Amino acid sequence: MDDSLTAPTPAAPACAGPDRALRAPRLKLPAGTVDCHAHVFGPRERFPFSPERSYTPEDCTVDDYRALLDTLGIERCVIVHGGAHGTDNAVTLAALRELGPRARGVAVIRPGLGDAALDALHEGGMRGLRISSVVRGGASFEHLEALSQETRRLGWHMLMHLHRSAELVQLAPRLRALPNDIVLDHLGYVRGEEGTGAPGFAALMSLLETGRTWVKLASLYRSSSQPYPHEDMLPMIHAVVAARPDRIIWGTNWPHPIYRGPMPNDADLVDLLPLWIPDEATRHRVLVDNPARLYGFDT
């Protein structure tokens, strides 16, 4: 094997892999539950990492992820293309082929691909694109309007991956002007210590009022200043669910790349759901109905 495919560079440090001790959660998830946020990485011999990457993950393959889904009792999933692979979406497209109708994808692209290439991504299962201010090698917010114009005919949403919630304050007017649906990754990265009074959270709540914005409850252990069960995140979670239960989705964020805290077990993350969304009917909406509509699982 070419060592360049595996060895991290100083600019792309190695990051820890997931907790691979698979176990079933206490909560039995409803039929049709969608994990709306996971990544697959490698195997590197087949899908090399991008030289522009910000981090170097372990191989976390589609087979590993399938085993996790089956253990957790999750029927459907969305693979968000990981930054370690840059704008080469081959690893995610391969995962979508292997997982079949139970899977959809979110691509990482830059403007200028052309209709034929975009159509091929759509036919491969992609239903949105991700823009990030966190990782290198993908699309940034300078590409926002151009990517919107190129993908709106496909009905793709645009997933916003923010470094901090304050970015939403300046972004909000641009997001309001877009015709695409917008998904705010990781609850807009509002931190527990910021609380519901944060300007970024106010911008998030304002965007929810548009009816074209979705909020993803995933990776919230990153935003918390407290250990599991991360109760400092509850005021923000409860506020968005109460405001727009029809625009909230959920994901595991497996395999939890670039996380330096205690690695969460995914069964524990599932078991947070009754704390986050106590009402069973609303929980069904968030886990099943909303993502089925956003990602087109029932069409």
Automatic annotation (TrEMBL):
InterPro entries: Amidohydro-rel, Aro_Compnd_Degr_Hydrolases, Metal_Hydrolase. SUPFAM superfamilies: Metallo-dependent hydrolases. GO terms for molecular function: hydrolase activity. Residues 34-297 form the Amidohydrolase-related domain. PANTHER family: BARREL METAL-DEPENDENT HYDROLASE, PUTATIVE (AFU_ORTHOLOGUE AFUA_1G16240)-RELATED (PTHR35563:SF2). This is Amidohydrolase-related domain-containing protein.
